[in-house]
Specification:
Strand content: 15-25%
Number of helices: 13
Radius of gyration: 20 Å
Number of strands: 17
Shape: globular
Distance between the termini: 38 Å
Order of helices and strands: HEEHEEHEHEEHEHEHEHEHEHHHEEHEEE
Largest sheet: 7 strands, mixed
């Protein structure tokens, strides 16, 4: 996992660059959590940028407007902190001259830097679930991943109807991301006749959840919600819940964390766990992407990665359509004008006008899976309206 080691040990920038003779450089930034609890997501984003760069560079570069460009990836670790994210973003924009960024990861980092990205016309590809990330005023903020307020409603309706869950508990990080996800989940459960009877908040660095979980279990819950937690934290919560004797269904209605849940909690503890699956692993394009990612990074694929890869694919196609890499407004217009785009996810489009007054949200199907025997088995396919 070379990229992680370089960022973590040097606390600096690294580049992937193999300039062909006569080719100009096209800088692509990565601003993500490359150490700590959110590392799985950060490596997913970094990997998407690097693999997309490798693909075009291996063909001699990206041809735009009669010129060839070698893509150079510049990555910084934001440590999942708003202040660090803003510092790193300023470095990308003002020191490195980057106009296109894979990131930021979380809601708090996004809210810290979006005014800067808007003023300086920097296209960002965020994983922030806060609705504010797609406010119409933030014209250059694209979101390739599907957020809780899109996928939580149909998934929660499905699990409540299928499992009969009425009393739900959950733990959420005590920051903008956790508060937004917690509120969205609580509203979605209540809308289908269930009730959030126990909700606790914690600092992201925490690893011992037994006191908090004990309070939650004392409310006689019949299901536990994992949404809003990093993959590693989700795995710890499943492990500690089972150790405390909770045998009911554990539900992950958002954010791919399957590999980490299985690795940390173990096969036995993950029985009767329902997880959000962003991708269809049966697609040949996903299987090939998974092979490339896991060969390069030696870690299981986090399913958010193909979404960022698809967004970078669309960014490159938009540049080619616009005939420029420097006019960000033309590139933005061309990217958002792509319809039924053939990506690693299959055909994708843009949505969001009705919900956020801006079509800057990538649209793709998603899934519910049951963990059984140490593997995820898809049990429902979903749209923003229904799972079936």
């Amino acid at each position: 996992m070379r990229g992680f080691l370089k960022v973590a040990l040097l606390s600096s920038v690294f580049a992937v660059s193999s300039h062909a003779a006569g080719a100009e450089a096209l800088k692509l930034g990565v601003l993500a959590t490359l150490s700590g609890a959110g590392t799985a997501w950060g490596i997913a984003m970094q990997g998407a940028a690097e693999l997309a760069a490798e693909e075009v560079n291996s063909k001699g570069g990206l041809e735009v407007g009669g010129k060839k460009y070698q893509v150079e990836v510049i990555a910084y670790d934001d440590h999942y902190k708003a202040a660090d994210a803003l510092t790193a973003f300023n470095r990308l924009v003002f020191d490195d001259g980057v106009k296109y960024v894979v990131g930021p990861l979380g809601s708090a980092p996004a809210l810290a830097l979006l005014p800067v990205s808007t003023e300086n016309k920097v296209i960002t590809m965020t994983m922030a679930f806060t609705p504010k990330a797609l406010s119409a005023e933030y014209r250059y903020s694209l979101r390739p991943v599907i957020p809780s307020d899109v996928f939580s409603d149909p998934q929660i309706k499905w699990v409540v109807q299928k499992l009969g869950a009425k009393r739900v508990g959950g733990l959420f990080p005590n920051d903008e991301s956790g508060q937004q996800v917690g509120a969205a989940n609580e509203a979605a459960y209540q809308a289908v006749g269930a009730k959030f009877v126990a909700k606790e908040f914690f600092e992201r660095e925490r690893v011992d959840f037994v006191p908090l979980l004990t309070r939650v279990l004392a409310q006689n819950i019949d299901a536990f919600e994992l949404d809003g937690n990093s993959p590693q934290t989700a795995g710890l919560l499943v492990k500690q819940l089972r150790e405390l004797g909770f045998k009911g269904p554990i539900i992950r209605t958002g954010g791919d964390a399957t590999a980490d849940i299985l690795k940390i909690a173990g096969k036995e503890a993950t029985e009767n766990v329902y997880v959000h699956q962003p991708i269809n692993s049966e697609l040949a394009s996903i299987q090939e992407y998974t092979r490339r990612f896991e060969t390069k990074y030696k870690v299981p694929l986090n399913a958010f990665s193909p979404f960022f890869y698809a967004n970078v694919q669309m960014l490159f196609a938009g540049m080619q359509k616009a005939g420029t890499v420097t006019d960000v407004d033309k590139v933005r217009e061309a990217v958002l004008g792509l319809k039924d785009f053939d990506s690693v996810l299959g055909k994708v489009n843009w949505i969001g006008q009705a919900q956020w007054k801006s079509n800057q949200q990538l649209d793709a199907p998603f899934y519910v899976a049951l963990l059984k025997g140490g593997e995820a088995h898809v049990v429902a396919k979903c749209t923003p309206v229904v799972c079936e």
